[in-house]
Amino acid sequence: AEALDLEKTVLETVEEVAEDWRIDDIKGLLGRCNFKSDMLDRKVSFLSGGEK
Hints:
- The chain starts with 9 loop residues before the first helix and ends in a 20-residue tail after the last helix.
- The chain is mainly alpha-helical.
- The protein has helices spanning about 10-15, 25-30.
- It has one domain (about 10-45).
- Helices cover about 35% and strands about 0% of the residues.
- The protein is globular, with a radius of gyration of 10 Å.
- It comes from Nymphaea colorata (pocket water lily).
- This is ABC transporter domain-containing protein.
């Protein structure tokens, strides 16, 4: 969690490391990890320790 940029959103954070992925695939992966669509635009700083 220390390496995460707390000012980026959840989606931006994953997009950064999954550069070759389509956005729909990233959203699907996050959904399977129990990140609901309304959480994708949430800044990482607002996530709980377990979510990070």
